[in-house]
Write a structure and sequence with these properties.
alpha/beta
């Protein structure tokens, strides 16, 4: 009886604690990449639940069916060679599960790594760079820069260029997509999009020192009209970003939200090596075509 009461109290306490937790942001997608990942997570939860329930059910059946019985001490059970169907099931089902999950993972990986489709406008390019312990967002098209907050238009692809002015960090907006590393000597490209307006939270998902826990930024998705109005307001009210001011911002520490006209790309450009960008692919194809053309001429 005591064990039952202890189990009941434990389950009640666990339910009360979980009820106070924040909602799982990865299961509340606001963009196509995040929606794909949320679907995969839900699929995995259902599949794992089915496997666990099936295994526990088989365990209970085996415990009851093959439990010790009141047989004579000299009783010897009949010799069993094995069952081909049991072996096929025990080996075949795991193979099918692994093959299925591999197919889903590879297909989803290509989808979330590619630029979102179905949008009429060209991607908005944003350079997202990190320093100890803050985020700098440069908008070359709009010629503005923000610190620790990000404004984005809805229904338009987003192309983030990620790099770091310090240790390796990881750029992550759970409701828009997965995380990707930002490094000091190269630029990584992350494609995202927001389908509905709202407030979201972004953060550095990679440990980068004592200030890592507060290395967060706010994300606001809005209509293209509201985004254009915000850009105009910034140009009317914000101060220009100077090289001296930017170097001061790079010093280790925490800052609030800041807004500037101009970007640090003019005097402190991003690393030249761009990993995973469309530009690299075009350059590679162009070089390949030029090589083939030279080979043709030399052959003639």
């Amino acid at each position: 009886m005591k064990i039952k009461w202890a189990l009941l109290v434990s389950l009640t306490s666990l339910a009360a604690i979980l009820a106070g937790c924040e909602p799982l942001l990865v299961l509340d997608p606001k963009g196509p990449q995040a929606a794909r990942q949320a679907g995969d997570i839900s699929l995995l939860i259902v599949l794992m639940a089915f496997i666990v329930i099936a295994v526990l059910t088989i365990l209970v059946i085996v415990l009851f069916k093959y439990r010790a019985s009141k047989m004579p001490d000299d009783y010897e059970p009949p010799h069993i060679e094995g069952n081909i169907w049991v072996e096929v099931i025990c080996i075949g089902i795991p193979i099918i599960i692994v093959a299925f999950l591999s197919f889903v993972s590879v297909k989803s990986n290509y989808i979330v790594e590619s630029a979102p489709t179905g949008y009429e406008e060209e991607p908005l390019v944003i350079y997202a760079s990190s320093s100890d312990w803050k985020w700098h967002f440069s908008y070359p098209e709009q010629n503005i820069e923000t610190v620790n907050y990000l404004y984005i238009p809805t229904d338009r692809p987003l192309e983030f260029k990620l790099y770091s002015y310090g240790p390796i960090t990881s750029f992550w907006i759970p409701q828009l997509g997965g995380q990707k590393y930002a490094m000091a000597d190269m630029v990584t490209t992350l494609h995202l999009a927001a389908d509905e307006p709202g407030e979201m939270l972004g953060r550095n998902a990679n440990f980068s020192g004592k200030g890592f826990a507060e290395n967060r930024f706010n994300v606001t998705a809005m209509s293209q009209k509201d985004f254009d109005e915000w850009v105009e307001e910034v140009h009317e009210t914000a101060d220009p970003l100077t090289e001296e001011e930017f170097n001061r911002l790079l010093e280790p520490g925490h800052l609030g939200q800041m807004t500037f006209t101009g970007t640090h790309l003019d005097f402190s450009p991003a690393p030249e090596h761009d990993h995973g960008s469309d530009a690299d692919e075009h350059e590679e194809h162009s070089t390949h075509d030029e090589t083939n053309e030279e080979s043709d001429h030399s052959g003639h």
